Amino acid sequence: MKLTILGLGTMTGAILAGALEAGAVRAEDVTATTRSAASAEKAASQHGVTVTSQERDERANHAAVAEADIVLVGVKPKDMVATLTDLAPSLRPEAVVVSVAAGVTSATMAAVLPAGQPIVRTMPNTPLTVGSGVVGMAPGPGVTEEQTTAVRALFEGSGLVVPVAEEQLSAVVATAGSAPAYVFLLAELIAAHGAEMGLDAASAEAMAAATVKGAGIMLQQEGARAEALRKAVMSPNGTTEKAVEAFLDGGMGDLVNRAMDAAAQRDKEMAEEFGA
Ligand SMILES: NC(=O)C1=CN([C@@H]2O[C@H](COP(=O)(O)OP(=O)(O)OC[C@H]3O[C@@H](n4cnc5c(N)ncnc54)[C@H](OP(=O)(O)O)[C@@H]3O)[C@@H](O)[C@H]2O)C=CC1
Ligand SMILES: O=C(O)[C@@H]1CCC=N1
């Protein structure tokens, strides 16, 4: 399987790292591009694959897709339509175009790609880079079973792949795509206040990071439920009960809902903003 990545950045870099580590693709079967020569150089040395840049060769994207079975597009949502419009004449008809972009619909992509070009929309998250990611995957119309399997194989070794309808991708952004940032924010806040309470900053950061990691691993154990795990930490009238009460009395439930609704809403807005 030949894989081309247009826009080898943070998200597609995480996907590539996970896929290489899992053996889903071989480095010699990957070609990738970036906009700037500096990013190309950095990504090539980071991942050990061939990376060309538009800065050095304005036909770089066209050359990169010449033999591609899967074209993973990792440019920003605002750049999707222009990138695909430019690329369209060079795609092999059977190449599957896989998007990771928030808010760019398959209808928008289909409008600028050759008729019948197979399209798969996904919403991944960056923990794929360490083999613990999530990918919501919505194959477009006309994508064969074999093509869906090939795209799925790219992610499967490095995370949980959840087939969804395209309309559900806004919920996947809110629940998984953006969600690592919520956890990182919580870790930041815990570490910062631990330091304010008198711990040295490095120890507080290390404690927050190890706690998030440990809690994540416990959540992944067979049959684990977040609520039961939380209650096991909460001794009656103990310290945790006081902390959890403070969170809930402070409106954390509503706050999480509002944050996730804001992410999903932005995804929908981008569909309008960056539509073809
Ligand atoms: N970051 C995340 O956690 C997630 C991101 N996504 C989606 O991933 C996509 C990329 O985001 P992210 O990885 O954060 O962004 P990055 O800026 O890290 O990556 C974008 C990449 O695209 C390159 N690029 C820009 N224009 C072109 C072009 N015309 N041709 C080839 N390459 C180009 C950039 O090169 P250069 O560096 O030279 O500008 C860069 O390598 C977005 O659509 C986003 O919605 C989805 C889920 C999670
Ligand atoms: O913030 C964003 O728009 C992208 C999509 C999900 C995570 N990062």
Automatic annotation (TrEMBL):
Q: Which InterPro entries match?
A: 6-PGluconate_DH-like_C_sf, NAD(P)-bd_dom_sf, P5C_Rdtase_cat_N, P5CR_dimer, Pyrroline-COOH_reductase
Extract the GO molecular function terms from the UniProt entry.
pyrroline-5-carboxylate reductase activity
Q: Does the keyword Phosphoprotein apply?
A: no
Q: What is this protein called?
A: Pyrroline-5-carboxylate reductase
Enzyme Commission code: 1.5.1.2
Organism annotation: Micrococcus luteus (strain ATCC 4698 / DSM 20030 / JCM 1464 / CCM 169 / CCUG 5858 / IAM 1056 / NBRC 3333 / NCIMB 9278 / NCTC 2665 / VKM Ac-2230)
Q: What does this protein do?
A: Catalyzes the reduction of 1-pyrroline-5-carboxylate (PCA) to L-proline.
Keywords attached to this entry: Amino-acid biosynthesis, Cytoplasm, NADP, Oxidoreductase, Proline biosynthesis
Q: Which family does the UniProt entry place this protein in?
A: Belongs to the pyrroline-5-carboxylate reductase family.
Q: List cellular component terms (GO).
A: cytoplasm
